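A favour between colleagues. Tell me how you read the following sequence-structure pair.

===
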Amino acid sequence: MKDLDRTPSKQRLRLWLRMLSAHRGVEAQLRERLREDYDSTLPRFDVMAALDRYRDGLRMSDLSARLKVSNGNVTGIVERLVSEGLVERAQVDGDRRAMLVRLTPAGIERFAAMAADHEAWINDMLTPFSGAELDTLITLLDRIGDHPA
């Protein structure tokens, strides 16, 4: 390896590429397992996870904002979840145009099973790391967002 390739700039670029590769690998496994075990997708899981955290429901605009996606993306996912009986819509008191969405009891039950498996899958994928290594990785990754660009 050339000396130039060990500059901090090149090392940071290599680190970014390794983080991206690791993320893509984990995400691909999660997508496959959700598809195989639940005939579901990662975006559907994310919508259900957000609604699980807000059991009283969220306005569609708040749901989109929390997921950092467009209203259009969320609308299609919510429509499918409603048609499957996993999510319900309710009118927002005092605002006839706004809709609140929340998990149904069936949605809560389905998400609980998905979330338990999701945790187990992540645990299996990250088993090679010791507790101390996990703490170190978490600390180091937390620092990335602490440094303004």
